[in-house]
Amino acid sequence: MQIIRNRRINDVCVVGSGAGGGMAAKVLTEAGADVVMLEAGAPFDTARDSKMFAWSYDGPHRGAAIPTRQFGEFDAGWGGWSLDGEPYTTGDDSRFDWFRTRMVGGRTNHWGRISLRYGPDDFRRRSLDGLGDDWPITYDDLKPYYDEVDRLVGIFGSIEGLPNEPDGIFLPPPRPRCYELLIKQAADKLGITCIPSRKSILTRPHNGRKACHYCGHCGRGCAIHANFSSPSVLLPPAMATGRLTLITRAMAREVTSDETGLATGVSYIDTGTGRENHVRARIVVLAASACESARLLLNSRSSRFPKGLANSSGTVGRYLTDSTGVTVAGFIPKLMNGVPHNEDGTSGMHLYMPWWLDNRTLDFPRGYHIELGGGRRMPGAGFLSDLQRFTGVDADGRRIAPAGYGKALKEDYRRFYGARVSFSGRGEMIPNEHSYCEVDPTVVDRWGIPVLRFHFKWTDHEYNQVRHMQRTFRAIIDEMGGTPLTPMPSREAGYGILPGGRIIHEVGTTRMGHSPSTSVLNAQCQAHDVKNLFVADGGPVVSNPDKNVTWTILALAMRTSMYIVDARKAGRI
After folding, report:
1. Is residue 406 over pLDDT 90?
2. pTM of the model
3. How many whole angstroms separate alpha carbon 357 and alpha carbon 190?
4. Under 8 Å CB-to-CB from 509, ≥6 apart: which residues?
5. How far apart are CA 422 and CA 330, in angstroms?
């Protein structure tokens, strides 16, 4: 294969354009660096390409999921758990579902915008309970960068003073919806903390961006830039410097290195032409996502790095974790026959439940938070069948017999519209030796690049945790006077836990640490083995708390990028 080599030496090559890559590009270009960014996916412009106001009947698939958009035909998630020509494999008795987004901005285009800081205890869990490992940094080390991310991006929330749920610099939260107020009443009676969500959606104009107008379609991308995505917030100022070169449809193949062990650039496949190209750079920043960056390092083998670049410790791909996930829905008679009104609000929940208990009194070591669902969303035939199966009669004592067609079906929809609520747990997984990714020795993708093979296992820590979720959600539904719409799963069914990868919070494959023998990166997210190589995605994360990871990726990427600027000026790299 002919390799097209660009002889220009860039200051920095960034692989990936999502949260970490976008932040790195912004900080580095504004500091004067010439940056080339490689993005495996297609161009995406939120103002031009989002489908905020498309009706289901506007599309050939009536809005349903399609192979290239597995959250829905109009969703800004161009990718999925399976991609044509890009396989991955799993080891014996393992299942891990790997979601990959192929578009500029990556997952920042379609995530839930739940923007939670890790707390002080999350950085020192081993010191507290003896499991996993402590981080090489503390909350206080990262707090200034969390603050700067709040100021830059904008986030709504409320000051609560909860010890391990740090407050931020908040915009006012939106008002709770009717069903959320009922959930909070039940939570208060049960002693479950329930507070306003913390989400990176603007409730007031901020830094030249408009406030949310509550269309409820954040997952489709926001044409007015009211929610956070890399193409809305990070890439435009980087582009405005004139120092960012963005190359799309560029599938990174290998980080190249020289005889001294320094990174020299990145080779990539132009997925439009199939040609292999190479960009040169003095510094390389990987932000392709935790597993993609691990794959890239493992595939960057040479006589100097036979196990892969920056992998003298053998820990690249290890310590893979995802959030645990369980959802329970309930039928709430109090919400039947509601007055028609628009309660779209911001996408997703206006309230949530952070972890409220002491694990020392429980049979699992780490906590979870609860995400709420419900409202006036159209119920389907499956919902009516569930009602018939699990309730038998409605609040008026009439037997529920879902109609199939016509006037009776419309009347059923009006009665039950908005009478369903749901609770989803997102909990902390503790790293274990059975959960990791490696390069498959025989399988390659359509471009000839070796693919990842996953090994994954939940332990009793996670199973006991999700059993607690199931019981908690049913207790809340019962307190609301409702009925769960699914039976309690058994231990053999894993208490309903979703497979690894399904929550799309995978982290830890290039973790940071003090020792080069047990970690890939140092406290600055700089490779122990390669001083001009950095990682700025979820890979450096040492533990995976009960908080969505994006805000920490942004803060770490800002911190790492500012270190690069200072180290470059001082001549250390």
Report:
1. no
2. 0.95
3. 12
4. 290, 291, 293, 294, 316, 317, 318, 319, 320, 436, 437, 539
5. 6
